[in-house]
Request: fold
Amino acid sequence: MTTPATPDINALARLAAQAQADLARIGETGTDWVPPAEGIDHNVVVVGAGQSGLSAAFGLRRAGIGRVSVVDAARAGHEGIWRGPARMTILRTPKVPPGPELGLPSLSFQAWYEAAYGVEAYAALPTVPREIWADYVAWFRSASAVEVRNGVTLARVEPQEGRRKEGGLRLHFTAEGKTFTETTRKLVLATGIAGSGGPFIPDVVANLPGHLYAHTHAFDPKALAGRRVAILGSAASAFDAAGALLEAGAGAVDLFSRGADLARGSAMKPFGFFGAWEHFHALPDADRWAVMAHFRRRASFPPPAAVKRAAAHANFRIHLDAGWNAAAPHGDGVRITLNSGATFDADFILLGTGYQADARLYPPFADFAPSIARWSDKVAVDEADAALASAPYLGPAFELVESEPGAAPFLADIHFLAFSAMTSTGRPVGDIASLRHNIPRAVAAIGRDLFVADRAKHLARFLAPVGTDDLPRDLYAGALAAGDALAAAE
Reply:
């Protein structure tokens, strides 16, 4: 797809100003209603400034929740996946559903694109190029006035219960080689796959030297130019990686699938309606688990555009019914032994093997990881579904839940909007389509929790003596009937 001409910077500046004016018109100016808590730095800390973290921070401000801080380990402009791990050329959906703008049209992708490139250009746009979407997210950050501290990494989460009356969380950060701590009442984790343990590395490559393989989440296609690459996996990320490698000049790319054919239909297609997105979390545990296990047991569907992109190259081959039994160094490369006994030699292995789902593996949670409930604590699990069952079992507002009731009540103050929340919600958390459903639910719950926690302060405010300044008596004193006690007192 041809990249549009240079965007109209002046039009985008006017659109950003319009967005701020629109917020003022509907009374969402960010006035903070949360009373300050002694010894607490922030009401909410959002970790991750990709589209999900930005939308969460935007939603919190619109709800009148102040003292919200957003941090991201990446440098500015490289938050999230769009300029990093994502290898697709276009987004998965034609145009886009509502995204981080949370119902404010002037902050929508369509408004941005029309301002940047023209109304006719948007009408002619069949699909959204990945880097164009990245440009929009960067503009959204600026136009929504969400401030982000870049280069700041969350290293440890420490519960404050027992240390101070108000509780809260003590967060340990690193930035530019230094460490520091801050306190918060609520923590929103919007870190994508990192919060769930990161990429899944199968045992078949466990004994290989690190220079012979990489996961599709982190590799440089240009560094593999001219080389023969074997890809394990046949879902979207595997085909996206194949396309990127081939376009960067790989000598040959061979993709290996365990199945006798590629998945040719999406098991999740029946999920694609508003009611499911909005209310799946309200189903009984047994129902949710049955659906998610059903989805997982069916091979992941590679998008047609990704398959077409790779298959267009003569030096690309798909190997079906070709699961791997072993991989070992061989010469300067690696020799792969298939389950059939056949062998295949490659210069490098790329793993399109998906991601772990266990929030207990997130390093900042190390102090209390065993206290985090997983789906394996809630339902009977077959061995084949053990990986799925390691996902965190979340409450209705994406809050972490205790594995043993009463053992770690502070977990309710950690709202988990990372990758493996999908098992509880039924849909990928953090993707574009999820934002209009997930962010308002999380924001409403955070506001409710803060309000109820400050119940005594709010009651004192509600029940305080009523003043007399709102209606000066001189406005009506001259109209008092003769002989009235108030009139006589004048």
User: Anything to note?
Assistant: The first helix runs from residue 9 to 25.
